[in-house]
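Lab notebook, design round three. We kept the backbone fixed and only want residue identities now. Task for the bench partner: fill in a sequence for the structure below.
Input structure tokens:
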């Protein structure tokens, strides 16, 4: 049984678009705010704390990019023809890059 879409449920599509977009936007704001205040760090503990926040935000941006890209592939590129192109997608470099993006983003967010 082959699925016609990557994300079949409308609720999943909405959540993927929303969470992906918000993750990218919010974490860009967090990174910009913390980078701009790095010079004001008075001691090493504060500097390390801000650096870790920046690193975690970077990982979250990668996961947001993954969700955003999956949403684009589902809604714009494949639409309802995913079933016919499923093998090509799974074997593609784009799918592999999405896997790397997801894995690296998750690992950075968890272990930073």
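Proposed sequence:
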């Amino acid at each position: 049984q082959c699925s016609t879409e990557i994300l079949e449920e409308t609720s999943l599509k909405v959540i993927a678009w929303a969470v992906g977009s918000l993750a990218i936007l919010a974490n860009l704001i967090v990174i910009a705010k913390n980078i701009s205040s790095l010079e004001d760090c008075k001691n090493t503990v504060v500097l390390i704390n801000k650096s870790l926040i920046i690193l975690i935000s970077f990982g979250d941006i990668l996961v947001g990019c993954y969700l955003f890209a999956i949403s684009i592939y589902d809604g714009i590129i494949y639409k309802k023809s995913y079933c016919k192109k499923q093998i090509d997608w799974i074997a593609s470099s784009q799918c592999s890059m999405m896997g790397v993006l997801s894995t690296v983003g998750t690992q950075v967010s968890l272990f930073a």
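Keep this in mind before ordering anything: The helical segments are 10-36, 44-78, 82-90, 93-111.
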